[in-house]
Write a structure and sequence with these properties.
The chain is of the alpha+beta class. It has one domain: Nuclear Transport Factor 2, Chain: A, CATH 3.10.450.50. Helices cover about 40% and strands about 40% of the residues. The chain has four helices and five strands, in the order αααβαββββ. The protein has a five-stranded mixed β-sheet. β4 and β5 form a beta hairpin. α2 crosses α3 and α2 crosses α4. The longest helix is centred in the first third of the chain and has 20 residues. It is globular, with a radius of gyration of 19 Å. It starts with a helix and ends with a strand.
Length: about 150
């Protein structure tokens, strides 16, 4: 009898994990996740170190188009500071298309992005695709990894 109960409990647990892991993010989760994503990007352009440190953990791995070196949190903070030191300003930030997959406490976003910046009085537009990883830690989304490419 005990064995039958253990098997039943195990099967229910496995089915629950399979059911939850393959589902897209719920609308309320999506809103919070997209808010976090927007905050990470805007915080980088604004050189908001406090927010970046909270949302981009030390174990972050970033792969950017055309760059040989992979980056971590310290590199992200340094690049934000350099952009800000060059009087860089974000003019426009858009994500025309985003798809989200949720796997428990992990979500992956696949997006098209476009941003317009101004540095030293010169404006430029950059667009491309980004795959971002988000992890739910202490009831808040963090962004410990992403990979970008740019359109030609």
């Amino acid at each position: 009898m005990r064995r039958a109960i253990r098997i039943t409990v195990a099967m229910v647990g496995v089915l629950a994990m399979l059911f939850v892991s393959g589902l897209p993010a719920r609308p309320d989760d999506q809103a919070e996740l997209l808010k976090t994503r927007e905050s990470v990007w805007r915080s980088w352009f604004a050189n908001d170190t406090k927010t970046l440190e909270a949302l981009v953990p030390p174990d972050t791995i970033v792969i950017s188009a055309g760059e040989e070196k992979w980056k971590n949190q310290a590199d992200i903070l340094e690049s934000a500071a350099k952009f800000h030191a060059a009087d860089g300003k974000l003019i426009r930030l858009e994500f025309p298309r985003t798809e989200i997959q949720r796997f428990g406490d992990v979500a992956v976003t696949y997006s098209q992005y476009l941003y317009e910046t101004e540095e030293n009085g010169k404006r430029s537009v950059t667009s491309g695709r980004v795959t971002e990883v988000f992890v739910l830690r202490n009831h808040h989304w963090t962004n410990p990894g992403w990979h970008t490419d740019t359109e030609k």
